[in-house]
Amino acid sequence: MNIKKIALIVSIAVFVMALPFCNYSNQNKNQMVRLAKLVIDPTQLENYKALLKEEIEASIRLERGVLTLYAVVEKNDPTHITILEIYADTVAYKSHLLTPHFIKYKNGTKDMVKSLELVETVPLIPGMKIK
User: Fold this and answer.
1) How many CA atoms lie within 13 A of 14 on its CB side?
2) What is the pLDDT of residues 44-78, one digit of tens each?
3) Cβ-contact 101, 60 below 8 angstroms
């Protein structure tokens, strides 16, 4: 085994052993994380996706407390959409609900959404870095 491989193995071992001692910030402990599970009227799916894209882009760009809004569709049923929502805290979430772009999205999609389930979650790894 050459010296580069040994150095790499030692570096990885030191990193793994140090993980339990990492100090995660309090900001991550206060995050609000949830899933929004929606079923969209198939005849309005493209219009819904356009409004959702506009709302997510504005939220990420304009709201410091919106850390992540990540939407996915089910492969076998594209009318089933799930959005991962991560806010800095409940204050950021409540502020988000009052923004013009969210109100536009909510009013514009109310007749498109056949069902909505909001699932509150607890992060398994609360110190995870979010860019």
Assistant:
1) 6
2) 999 999 999 999 999 999 999 999 999 999 999 99
3) no
Considering just the CA atoms, what is the radius of gyration of the chain in Å?
20
What CATH class is the domain 25-121?
alpha beta
Task: Please give the model's pTM, rounded to 2 decimal places.
Answer: 0.75
DSSP calls for 12-48: HHHHHHHGGG----HHHHT-EEEEEEEEE-GGGHHHH
Question: What is the C-alpha separation between 96 and 103, in angstroms, rounded?
Answer: 9
Burial of 34: CB neighbours in 10 Å, binned 0-12, 13-18, 19+:
middle
| Pair of tokens at residue 83 | 């959005």
